[in-house]
Amino acid sequence: MGPRTTSTDKQEGGKQVSSDSGAVREDRRSGVIRTVLVCAALVAVAGVLLFVIFNTEPTARRDGAVRQSASLVDVTQGEFGTFRPTIEAMGTVRPAREISLGARVSGEIVEIGNSFVPGGYVDAGEVLVRIDDADYQVALQQSRSALDQAIADLEIERGERAAAEAEYRQFNRELPPEREALVLREPQGRAARANVEAARADVRQAELNVDRATVEAPFDAHVLGRAVNLGSQVSPGAALGRLVGLDTYWIEATVPVGQLQWLSVPDDDQPGSSVTVRNRNAWPMNVTRQGEVFRLIGELEGDTRLARILVAVDDPLARETEEDLPRLMLGEYVECRIEGRELSDVVRLNRDYIRENDTVWLMVDQRLVIQPVSILFEDERYAYIDEGLTAEDRVVTTRLATVQEGLRLRVDTDGDAAGEDIDA
Question: For the region Disordered, what residue ranges are annotated (predicted)?
Fold first, then answer.
């Protein structure tokens, strides 16, 4: 009885599971249908809303948009007249006069001047070094004695010639010129005179050696270096020191070849262009030195292919002035602002207002005009225009994002448009 009852229960349980699975599937199908219907309803509502929005949008008026499209700008005017442009150049300070002092005789250094030290200043004719001249003094005395002996020999020879000439006249005979010269001792006389001249030359050489044992400054100079000390043994040509002149330094500067035409090089009729020299890194602000274009070097600089000029600066170490001026240092890298030739009958305009392809923006009858101009010269700050612009023209200084000929403009009276990019 027990096993039958168990089999019946299992069959009934299987039928129950099958009924439950069918119900789940029906529920899922119904949920999908509801979801699709909801989505369709949402899409329909969105479509209706979009239709209503687009059909009720206000219409833009073209006339009103045109009236409000005029760009707000600032304007300025150029300056008409005669100007001297400024040419910017960089250069290196060089000595105008420099020597490497050397010994001309050999010997021992027995004296050195107090100012003959690196950084010292010496005057022209000041003793820098003395070389022991004892040997040269002895040689001078010997050469003078030799000269006295040669002069005495010449006097003796003259006496003998006079005696020979007297005897020759007593014989009252005419001899061939060659024989007569021998009888009158002319060869001996020439030899005696030559000995005197040679002795005088020896004396002069000995005097020079004595003088050269004392080395003096050839000009007012700044001592850059000294190569000897007391007791040093020197020979002819040995280096003693290095001197540079105090009166003038040169600045070797480079400029573009195209700007040379605006520079003045001194000649008989005119001075060179004036130059303002400054060193932004080492000198106080607004402190400068003055110079003048001195020469044009007839060779371009190697890689840059720039022209080289010399700028002369007098009293570079500021020793002859009471003003507190900076000193130029050899090898210093400085800025040169060179005053160019006069430009006559031109309009000067800030170069920031020069637009692409050498044009300027003008405001004419409240419209934008793109005006080509002829630029004669440009320096660091200004453009100098000889054609295409007058002093009465109103130049637009405001940057415009959209540039078109005939664009409507209006002047900014409050300065709000300055330096702004305005999209037309």
Answer: 1-24
Residue 158 buriedness (CB in 10 A; 0-12 / 13-18 / 19+): middle
Reading the block at residue 269, the tokens are: 């009729």
d(CA 384, CA 346) in angstroms, rounded, equals 6
- Same domain membership, residue 377 and residue 389: yes
CA 109/CA 138 separation, integer angstroms: 18
Q: Is residue 65 part of a domain?
A: no
Pairing of strands 248-255, 399-400: unpaired
Tens-digit pLDDT profile for residues 156-215: 888 888 887 787 777 777 778 877 778 778 888 888 899 999 999 999 999 999 999 999
| 109: containing domain | 101-124+219-243
List the CATH number of the domain containing 304. Answer: 2.40.30.170
- My answer on whether 299 and 323 are in the same domain is yes
Based on the fold, state whether residues 320 and 396 are members of the same structural domain.
no
**Are 236 and 269 in a shared domain?**
no
Domain count, the chain: 5
pTM for the whole thing? 0.67
